[in-house]
Design brief:
Layout lengths: L1 H31 L4 E16 L5 E15 L21 H29 L1 E4 L2 E5 L14 E6 L2 E2 L3 H10 L5 E8 L4 E7 L12 H4 L2 E3 L4 E8 L4 H5 L6 E5 L2 E2 L3 H9 L5 E8 L2 E8 L1 E5 L2 E5 L2 E5 L7 E4 L5 H26 L10 H14 L1 H19 L7 H14 L5 H31 L1
Antiparallel strand pairs: 1-2, 3-18, 4-5, 4-9, 5-6, 5-7, 7-8, 10-17, 11-12, 11-13, 13-14, 15-16
Helix pairs in contact: 1-2, 1-8, 2-7, 2-9, 2-10, 7-9, 8-9
């Protein structure tokens, strides 16, 4: 329950920041252009809070936190007196109206730069992209990759951490090949070319590198117990965090993989565990549980093992000075924008399936998880979603900012506005398309939750 509340709170905070910044972009430029703003709303529906400022603008927070709006004086929908007509939206030049419309997405891009700037100033604890193993029968297994090896670059794009690897590989989706440059422990550099002609993103929410078969290096678990699950066979037998497994049925245990095999291969069996606790040996008789995995019964103990420390040479802090962080934030924002546009194009061409679309549930989960990891990770997630929101709003669909910009471009070329009838038809079509995409995204969210 607590986890659900945390996720919902993180979702509301994320959406609140994104919507407020987006709408403030519209609001700020509208005021600079001399347009009268009637309402600035974060959220839709009944107002939970509202206040009217001296300039007449009503600021409010709606009960439905799934968007927001800025309502400007407009003679096409409001009764406007002759004295107020010059401050109405429709009375402005095409260039001013275009600036007001474009200001929302631009504000989202600037928010991404700011969030990434702050993230890099604080510093992001990261690990180098070290390939620990290659999945058998995978695309990566078709090439001769010696592990462990650090991924230096992908098609000449520098990859300092696994996030950079994930984004770089996503950008190559749909190409015939991708060249990965690796460096082994002896500092030897190797270029490996992977054939990815038939590679498509799977419906599972896995990073791109794992889908290709590149498994990150992970510290090996020890024989010391870190966690005991509630109401598990281990808890009923008296296991405690800190216990070190020495033997099972008298067989000495050398590593966790040996212990794991002894457990999973004996569903519902009774086993005698010898453990070391506070410097003394104790024996615990355990009746293992069982679980069905892929149609096979597997033994179950209900513990998690402590991991060995990640090597210091594999860890680093991704950090910049106050000035350099501006360039780093702007560069990554641009890369995220390029990737978002590319992925939309691949969605249209079928290279990326609509089953990969995510909706508000996935965003809420991402917000909750990133916030639980700490501020720097939440800032990175906020930047990613902000860029995506800005790009989506620039799509040439009439209900979005991009659609309004298309109408304004046509008006600028023709010298007169697009007829209301044409706009009405376009808005209906655009609304239907957006509704269909949202329905697919939400359906995908539900399917992932119930899978």
């Amino acid at each position: 329950m607590l986890s659900l509340l945390w996720t919902l709170a993180a979702f509301v905070v994320t959406l609140g920041i994104l919507v407020t910044i987006h709408e403030f972009g519209h609001y700020w430029v509208a005021r600079r252009c001399g347009v009268k703003v009637l309402t600035f709303s974060v959220g839709f529906g009944k107002a939970l809070w509202s206040r009217q400022a001296q300039d007449g603008t009503v600021y409010q927070v709606g009960i439905i936190p799934l968007g927001g709006y800025v309502r400007m004086l407009d003679a096409r929908v409001d009764e406007v007196s002759a004295s107020e007509y010059p401050v109405s939206f429709n009375a402005q030049s095409v260039s001013k109206r275009a600036a007001i419309v474009a200001a929302g997405p631009i504000a989202n891009f600037l928010l991404a730069v700011l969030a990434l700037w702050l993230m890099y100033v604080i510093g992001v604890p990261s690990v180098k992209p070290i390939v620990g193993s290659v999945t058998p029968q995978s695309i990566a297994a078709q090439s001769d990759i010696e592990t462990p090896a650090e991924i230096i670059s992908i098609n000449d794009r520098i990859t300092r951490d696994w996030q950079a690897v994930n984004l770089a590989l996503a950008a190559e989706l749909g190409n015939d090949t991708v060249t990965i440059q690796l460096r082994d422990d002896n500092n030897r550099v190797q270029d490996v070319q992977l054939a990815i002609t038939n590679w498509r993103l799977s419906e599972e929410q896995q990073p791109t590198f794992m889908q290709l078969g590149l498994e990150p290096f992970r510290p090996q678990p020890t024989l010391t117990i870190a966690y005991v699950a509630d109401d598990s066979p281990a808890q009923r037998a008296g296991f405690q965090p800190g216990d070190k497994i020495l033997a099972i049925d008298g067989t000495p245990q050398a590593e966790w993989s040996q212990t794991l095999e002894a457990i999973v291969s004996a569903p519902a069996a009774t086993k005698l565990f010898t453990v070391e606790r506070n410097g003394r040996q104790e024996e615990l008789l355990v009746e293992l549980g069982q679980r069905s995995i892929d149609g096979q019964n597997r033994g179950y103990l209900g513990v998690e093992a402590e991991g060995t420390r990640y090597p210091d040479e594999y860890r680093f802090v991704h950090e910049y000075g106050v000035i350099d962080a501006i360039g780093a934030g702007a560069k990554q924002t641009w890369e995220l924008m390029e990737l978002s546009v590319a992925m939309l194009g691949k969605l249209l061409t079928g290279t990326v399936s609509v089953s990969n679309l995510s909706g508000p549930v996935a965003i809420a989960e991402g917000a909750g998880v990133s916030a639980s990891y700490g501020l720097v990770y939440f800032l990175g997630f906020l930047a990613l979603i902000s860029v995506n929101l800005g790009i989506i709003n620039l799509l040439p669909l009439p209900v979005l900012d991009g659609g309004h910009l298309v109408f304004l471009a046509v008006e600028g070329i023709r010298g007169k506005a697009v007829s209301e009838r044409v706009q009405d038809i376009a808005f209906r079509i655009g609304g239907a398309l957006i509704f269909a995409l949202m329905a697919i995204a939400i359906s995908n969210d539900i399917l992932r939750l119930t899978a």
